[in-house]
Amino acid sequence: MKTKFFVVLAVLAALTMAGCAASGEEMGRPPFEEEVVGGTGSDTDGAPEDDDNHETDGGAEEEVEEEPEEEPQPEPVAAAKYVSLLSDGVNIRKGAGTGYTVLGAAEKDTRYAYLGEVDGWYKIGYKNTTAYISKKYAQLKDMAVSSNKKVESVISEGAKLLGTKYVYGATRYHDGNGNKLKAFTISAFDCSSLMQYMFYMGADGHLLGVTTRNQVLQGKTVAKSDLQRGDLMFFTNASRYNKTGVERIGHVALYLGDNMILHTASDYAKIEEISATRWKYYVQSQRMI
């Protein structure tokens, strides 16, 4: 009996010693309550980041905030480039250099269609050919283009002829019905013959009458406040100012926008700003295409 009793006591003592060693307190290990940096517990410090399906402490799925949609950006407005003169009497030359023949002279603030650049010179359309103006005396200007391709084609035809001399009563390209006139020459226009030629060549044979007083009766009348690129503007003049009806009409020009017109009057075809004096003679506008 004594032997069994001592055996039991020895077993109990061994079990007690094993329990103390397992607790770690004797080995200098931290107690189980102490935070372990870098552990994988549920505390936020040191916890791995979740994906979009992050859960709150309550277990409910957190609402994912959607990114706001980007507002649509307006499409850039297409623009046509023009060479605008900074001074009067600027030489227009046959080539890109001072050694080339002078074809004419440009006025301050008049514009020419920009066709490119060569060695410090702007390439332009002039008298139905190409010519050059030094960049020292000009700058580029943008003008918004029309969404109507025919309008831009009509303007392009007119831009080729800038600098062409004005001749009152110049022979028309056609008789108003599309029949070509033999005496026509591309080297001389008055205001209405220029418009007639531009529209025929640029708008698939669109027919305009032979005078401003014929043309003002064509197309759709538009208000001054509704003027658009490509509309024809009709004016009176000093000799017709007191007449009535279509007899008041004495001049026509094509509106380009930004208070600019393409026309010919008394000297040569040009693009220029509508002066205050010319506005006083304004009568009405017609949209042809």
Explain briefly what this protein structure is.
With about 290 residues, the chain is an alpha+beta fold. It has helices at about 1-25, 150-160, 190-200, 210-215, 275-280, and strands at about 80-85, 90-95, 100-105, 110-120, 120-125, 130-135, 140-145, 165, 190, 220, 230-235, 250-255, 260-265, 270-275, 280-285.
Task: Give an overview in words.
By secondary structure, this protein is an alpha+beta fold. It is 19% helix and 27% strand. A six-stranded antiparallel β-sheet has the order 10-15-11-12-13-14. Strands 6-5-4-1-7 form a five-stranded antiparallel β-sheet. The protein is globular and about 50 Å long.
What is this structure's SSE topology?
Elements: H1 2-23, E1 79-85, E2 90-93, E3 102-106, E4 111-118, E5 121-126, E6 129-134, E7 138-144, H2 149-160, E8 165-166, E9 188-189, H3 191-202, H4 212-215, E10 220-222, E11 232-235, E12 251-257, E13 260-264, E14 269-273, H5 276-280, E15 282-287
Parallel strand pairs: 8-9
Antiparallel strand pairs: 1-4, 1-7, 2-3, 4-5, 5-6, 10-15, 11-12, 11-15, 12-13, 13-14
Helix pairs in contact: 2-3
CATH architecture of the largest domain: Alpha-Beta Complex
Please state the average pLDDT score: 83
CATH superfamily of the largest domain: endopeptidase domain like (from Nostoc punctiforme)
Strand order of the largest sheet: 10-15-11-12-13-14
Structural class label: alpha+beta
Low-confidence stretches: 1-60
Shape: globular
Give the N-to-C terminal Cα separation. Answer: 128 Å
Order of helices and strands: HEEEEEEEHEEHHEEEEEHE
What is the helix content? 10-25%
Biggest sheet features: 6 strands, antiparallel
Briefly, what CATH class of the largest domain? Alpha Beta
